[in-house]
């Protein structure tokens, strides 16, 4: 990311900005965002995660931070930190709601204003990566984020899909959105591609496979990797207690995400 703003802002101190997109809900966008963030921290990076899924903010739950709140300081909103070294900061509307079950029923202009505020006012500090977890589709939130990031040249988008054709059709729209808005596509992740047996760790293809890779080829974008369904991960996410990093390292998809992360870093010009 090159800095092209005159006045230093919170975002101008961020080295790389990566959006995580999917055409369809529930394909694992927040899971991919979380695992990428944890893996980047493992690589020694300072990372911020911004959850702009305003109507269904799931990032606090993914990080086991559901009962945390953000507070205002003179520098702006202070995000929630997940570990003592302050290398992973998280911001989500979920931290601003009085009750985690509160429904957010907002019209477009209010959502747009909230996203502008998130992008302008969160004091991330000198972070290496800001990962932005978006809602599914191409909605008001996407347009707001793209417009507000225009001066900051985001590095690009990671597109998450599942192997089935119905999800792939939605992702095609997402790829077209990136082309239209000139957001570079860093690559496609095919999530829920096969199933890791919890008893024998064998991976079986329960749906068709390879759809994400074929689509990446068709659109001439990079294929970042295939991530199977790992029931251990689901159990670890649902479990109360434990640390976010043990959840990550105990999951069978940990090594896959290490590779995906290295590819994303390389696409961002961060490693040779
Ligand atoms: N590879 C995987 N292995 C096991 N469980 C997974 C995997 N990917 C996602 N999940 C689980 O599937 C559910 C949906 O995932 P997630 O919330 O990441 O999807 P999403 O695309 O962000 O959804 P939304 O549309 O609500 O934003 C979660 O419970 C998550 O733990
Ligand atoms: S995948 Fe095969 S080995 Fe593993 S539990 Fe199922 S049937 Fe048994």
From TrEMBL:
Q: Where does [4Fe-4S] cluster bind?
A: 197, 200
Places the protein is found: Cytoplasm, Cytoskeleton, Cilium axoneme; Cytoplasm, Cytoskeleton, Microtubule organizing center, Centrosome, Centriole
TM ranges are none
Instruction: Please give the Pfam families that the UniProt record associates with this protein.
Output: ParA
Domain of life per record: Eukaryota
* Entry keyword set: 4Fe-4S, ATP-binding, Cytoplasm, Iron, Iron-sulfur, Metal-binding, Nucleotide-binding
GO cellular component assignments? axoneme; centriole; cytosol; nucleus
- Biological process (GO) annotations? iron-sulfur cluster assembly
Where is it predominantly found? cytoplasm
Q: Name one GO molecular function term.
A: metal ion binding
User: Which annotated residues bind ATP?
Assistant: 23-30
- SUPFAM superfamilies from the entry? P-loop containing nucleoside triphosphate hydrolases (SSF52540)
Question: How would you summarize the oligomeric state and partners of this protein?
Answer: Heterotetramer of 2 NUBP1 and 2 NUBP2 chains. Interacts with KIFC1. Interacts with NUBP1.
Biological role stated in the UniProt entry: Component of the cytosolic iron-sulfur (Fe/S) protein assembly (CIA) machinery. Required for maturation of extramitochondrial Fe-S proteins. The NBP35-CFD1 heterotetramer forms a Fe-S scaffold complex, mediating the de novo assembly of an Fe-S cluster and its transfer to target apoproteins.
Entry similarity comment: Belongs to the Mrp/NBP35 ATP-binding proteins family. NUBP2/CFD1 subfamily.
What is this protein identified as?
A: Uncharacterized protein
Q: Which organism is it from?
A: Powellomyces hirtus
């Amino acid at each position: 990311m090159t800095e092209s703003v005159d006045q230093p802002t919170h975002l101008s101190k961020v080295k790389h900005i990566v959006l995580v997109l999917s055409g369809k809900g529930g394909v694992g966008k927040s899971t991919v965002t979380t695992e990428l963030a944890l893996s980047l921290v493992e690589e020694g990076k300072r990372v911020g995660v911004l959850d702009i899924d305003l109507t269904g903010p799931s990032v606090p739950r993914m990080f086991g931070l559901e009962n945390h709140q953000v507070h205002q300081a003179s520098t702006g909103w202070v995000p929630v930190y997940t570990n003592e070294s302050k290398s992973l900061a998280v911001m989500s509307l979920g931290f601003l709601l009085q009750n985690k079950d509160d429904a957010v029923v907002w019209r477009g202009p209010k959502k747009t204003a909230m996203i502008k505020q998130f992008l302008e006012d969160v004091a991330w500090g000198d972070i290496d990566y800001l990962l932005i977890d978006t809602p599914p589709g191409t909605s008001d939130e996407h347009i707001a984020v793209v417009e507000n990031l225009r001066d900051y040249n985001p590095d690009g988008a990671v597109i998450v899909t599942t192997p089935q054709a119905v999800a792939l059709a939605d992702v095609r729209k997402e790829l077209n959105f990136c082309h239209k808005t000139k957001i570079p596509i860093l690559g496609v992740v095919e999530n829920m591609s096969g199933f890791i047996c919890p008893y024998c760790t064998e991976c079986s293809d329960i749906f068709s496979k390879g759809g994400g890779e074929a689509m990446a080829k068709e659109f001439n974008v990079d294929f970042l990797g295939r991530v199977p369904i790992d029931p251990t991960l689901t159990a670890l996410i649902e479990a109360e207690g434990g640390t976010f990093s043990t959840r990550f390292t105990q999951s069978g998809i940990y090594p896959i995400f290490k590779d995906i992360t290295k590819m994303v870093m390389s696409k961002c010009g961060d490693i040779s």
